[in-house]
Amino acid sequence: MNSQGKKPLLGCIADDFTGATDLANNLVRAGMRVVQTIGIPTHTDIGSAIALETADAIVVALKSRTAPIDEAVEQSLSAANWLQSLGVAQLYFKVCSTFDSTDRGNIGPVAEELAEVLQAGIVPVCPAFPETNRTVYKAHLYVGDVLLSDSSMRHHPLTPMTDSNLIHVLQRQSKGKVGHVDHAVVRGGSDTIRERLEALRTDGTRFAIVDAIANDDLMTMGRAFASMPLVVAGSGVAIGLPQNFGISPSESAAQLPRAQGPRAIVSGSCSAASNAQVVDFIKRGGEAFPVDPLRIAAGNDIVGEALHWAGSRLSESPVLFYATAAPEAVKSVQAQLGVEHAGELVERTLSAIALGLVERGVRQLIVAGGETSGACVQALEVQQMRIGPQIDPGVPWCYALSPAAGKDGLMLALKSGNFGTVDFFTKAFGMLP
After folding, report:
1. Of 146, 213, 261, 317, which sees the most CB atoms within 10 A?
2. DSSP readout, 98-137?
């Protein structure tokens, strides 16, 4: 429970929409009642006001991961100012567990500006999330048993990650010095971590990459970060922070209203996990509509075709709309259309399909892919969501209000491309009545 009763304890800024629900999911699992806003709310309706008043944590979801640096910084600072106005005790800048970024940013530039505003002497940085096989050891990021640079993220279409040394990655983006808290220090306990961070601060270090290979490490560092004004991390560190506010796990934190109706999936992610999930859904007999970027670019009315195809298919049996494709196919399309243009075409089309589906009665919707989730949520004009039970690590069901859904609301799951078991789509709907 929020012991203060009137203001949230933790304020979070996420650089994409699926990352925001990933973070919120871990906070809920640790016992916090969480409201996720889509950007900074432009107005407050009755439902939003009640939700904010009863929330232990507020997560602001931005679409800033691949935005121009100045835009990403501006959005993040605005979110920080709004959260501070609510009285939060600590700020959490949530980045991807695979540290998705380019050599120019946006993690470093945003984190530095936030640190300046908060007057943070040193900022711990840890993208580790062992439950999803993301670990940091000797400042190197691993995906499962391989270095990040040897994983499928090496071929990411927007933020290819070819360097696993997070000190090097963050230093290229930052003006301040980047240091390291070794795993041996982490295993020494919270006091040892605090001592190491203070030594680095005294030495003029601005950021410290912190090793973590297990959940116990995250709980230990969570206690060490209790008095720090700013934490930069993936969603994993979130499991260690609620304890600092006297909060413990509780099933009531994940309780949601229910919205019943037809089911659908919209997938724009091209990650290996999403590819496997699409294949699994189709193999199980699920009906699916492919979205071809080249046909969109040629002027075909793909949205109209998709919604016409949906027609009488909308029911308790989910239908899938996907632009998910293998890396070779994605590169071929990007070569013909350009990386940014191809992405914009797909996002615009899938978000229009999602809106049309909800207008036609869909009330249980899964969206796969960070950029796709951002576009769909914006098209649906969702301003805030209540975070519910976990489907798979990093992915919860949420209850959202959307003008397209009316007073009924909408059950919504925003899945990061790399997350979820191969049967994720089937399993997710199996959790709902």
Report:
1. 261
2. T---BTTBSHHHHHHHHHHHHT-S-EEEE--BGGGTEEEE
- At a CB cut-off of 8 Å and minimum separation 6, what does 382 contact? 38, 400, 401, 402, 410, 412
Average pLDDT, the chain: 91
Q: 39-56: per-residue pLDDT in tens?
A: 887 755 434 444 677 799
**pLDDT, position 43:** 56
Q: What H or E segment, with its residue span, contains residue 36? A: strand 34-38
Q: Which residues pair with 412 in a beta bridge?
A: 365, 398
Residues 6+ apart with CB under 8 A from 224: 124, 190, 191, 193, 194, 197
Q: Determine which helix (DSSP H) or strand (DSSP E) holds 199, and give its type and residue range.
A: helix 190-202
CA-closest candidate to residue 93, choices 108, 119, 85, 101 = 108
Same domain, 275 and 315: yes
Domain boundary among 207, 235, 253: 253
Contact 134, 128 (CB under 8 A): yes
- Spatial distance between the Cα atoms of 193 and 268, rounded to a whole number of angstroms: 40
- Residue 272, domain member (yes or no): yes
CATH number for position 322 = 3.40.980.20
Is residue 36 assigned to a domain? yes
**Which tens digit of pLDDT belongs to each residue from 25-34?**
999 999 999 9
Q: How, if at all, do strands 395-400 and 205-210 pair?
A: unpaired
Q: Domain range spanning residue 397?
A: 256-430
pLDDT tens digits for 85-100?
999 999 999 998 889 8
| Global pTM exceeds 0.90 | no
- Residue found by looking up tokens 């008043």 in the block: 53
Q: Is the pLDDT of residue 324 over 70?
A: yes
